[in-house]
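User: I'm new to structure prediction. If I give you an amino acid sequence, what do you actually give back? Let's try with this one:
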Amino acid sequence: MLAGKRIKFEGFGNSSYRSREMGDALRTVEKALLLQLVYPNTGAILPLLSDIKKSPRLQVLNTDMLNYFAGIQKEILGTTNLNSVYQGAMVEHLVGQEILAFQYLSLASLYFWVREKKDSSAEVDYLFPFDGKLIPVEIKSGTEGKLKSLHIFMDMAPHTMAVRFYSGEMSITEATTLTEKKYQLLNLPYYLVSQLENYLAWFQKTLNNEQ
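Assistant: Good question. You get back a string of structure tokens that encode the predicted 3D arrangement of the chain. For your 211 residues, that looks like this:
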């Protein structure tokens, strides 16, 4: 199952179809609103410029479809950490679905960030435009020190705001990149995804009051 993951058109699903044939087929299904091909961004500032030459991420209509096709319904029941199911792809897909759901624009889309270098590739799960900034959104458990891709993005970003969704409680923590840049990380439980924009407004106000 490739939903929630980056894909290549050539040989998609272990088929014999070529890139052009499979690309046309998936774009047709996309027009039917059953899936979305999410292409990555490589910059840390607006405007959002998705690079259609890079491999897209496959976002299906909803996470229930993903769970059914992947056969992971039983794994979800009783789990204490959704990030452990389907190598974390399920909860990442769910966050993306929720981000799409609360946006009011009919042509709203998802965005994520990549840096593809031979020795230091990096990927941030989502980018969310807010008040002229591109806010990185990660879906991960663990300590702030393990968020290597997020650190790389924040070194490029002209601001100090980042978001992580995880299975813990809401908090604001300070993180430090490899170049010693300090930034503030808003940690939110998964169930608050639909309130992301409201919490970002509160987050920004809180940081401004502390300055």
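You can read the tokens as a compact description of the fold. Here is one thing that stands out. The chain is about 30% helix and 25% strand.
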